[in-house]
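Technical annex B. To support the medicinal chemistry partners, we prepared a structural model of the target in complex with S-adenosyl-L-homocysteine, based solely on the information shown next.
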Amino acid sequence: MMNPADLHIPGKRRKFIMDWLKTRNERKLKNLWRMADQTREAVVGKDIHLRGLIEISNLCNRQCFYCGIRKVNKSVERYSMRQDEILEAARLAESLDYGTVVLQAGESGYVSRDFITEVISVIKSETGLAVTLSLGEHPEAVLEEWKTAGADRYYMRFETSNNYLFWKLHPDRNDGLNARLKQLRTLDQLGYETGSGVMVGLPGQTLEDLCNDLLLFGSLNLDMIGIGPFIKHPGTPIGQNPDYFGKTLCSSRAELELLTGKMIALTRLLYPAVNIPATTALATINSSSGFKIALQCGANVIMPNLTPPNYRRKYEIYPGKGCSELTAGEQHAIISDDIQNCGRLIARGAGPSQHFIDEHHQPILEFA
Ligand code: SAH
């Protein structure tokens, strides 16, 4: 049972994944953590890439039933950062020696084509940072313009591969999952380093769904894969009527952590060269060891939050997200400790994924 070679045999892959997702045997699980950690060490090494997360606006026109900043949540005080504030946060990232900033926001008119184009151009001309966008869905022409302006990467989760569950969580969307998958393929074609991911423990989600999520990653040619636990937000339809949305796979925080860890480890085994963040959501449900758990089962990226504290509190997609009052420096010290305690190193530079490098490497022709 659970022969790692089965991962590479299409007919056996699904059973291999399901066996791991089902098992509660701690002795066997130690093997999974070890295999994922060894794969990470062999393929992407000890380096941890730090990305400064800047949550540039919480304005949103979407109704995602799990998200605390959904359009109709009237208790959220809305904000949008000015260009000079975004640039200041980017400079902070540079001063901490981070190689990348991630610009994240809800979907709204604030994220206008021109504004983002200008922000990208300014960051690229005034800093040496790589720019990742996490701004949801936009027309191809817009994505192309942002790429031309200098954006390097795009991160957009498809959230779940189960079409029915996706619709249940986003009933305002017509064919929503397919639209997201289509954009992910477009991003790849446009030359973005492309990231996606899912939430674990959504109500109504099954182990088969998670297995399908893992397999779908493979058909999207992803460079980065982010996996975090779903955290119930009281100000959302799921928070208010959890039973309507179905049972969740995890009845305790420990089970949710374990299942998230398994998904990260299996992602590393299936797609050895991708970048995998230790997500803030995991560090939120386990503040003392969330990052460490992820780092020890395959993750190689952390995204410290560089949103100015007065805005950070207002970007509460799940409870506890923005409550940290730590300064960027204090946060950096804690994360550096975690990294050191896991025997790992903080990388310098932009830190593209090995998968992206392998795919775009132009062999140098040697003539005898
Ligand atoms: N508007 C952007 C950014 C969304 S926020 C976009 O559409 O891509 C980034 C991610 O946070 C989401 O993709 C989702 O996976 C996650 N998220 C949202 N609500 C959450 C919750 N309640 N618990 C855990 N993760 C959540």
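Notes passed to the chemistry partners:
Residues 66-67, 104, 106-107, 134, 136, 156-157, 159, 199, 228, 230-231, 233, 281, 317-318 surround S-adenosyl-L-homocysteine (CB under 6 Å).
The chain has a mean pLDDT of 94.
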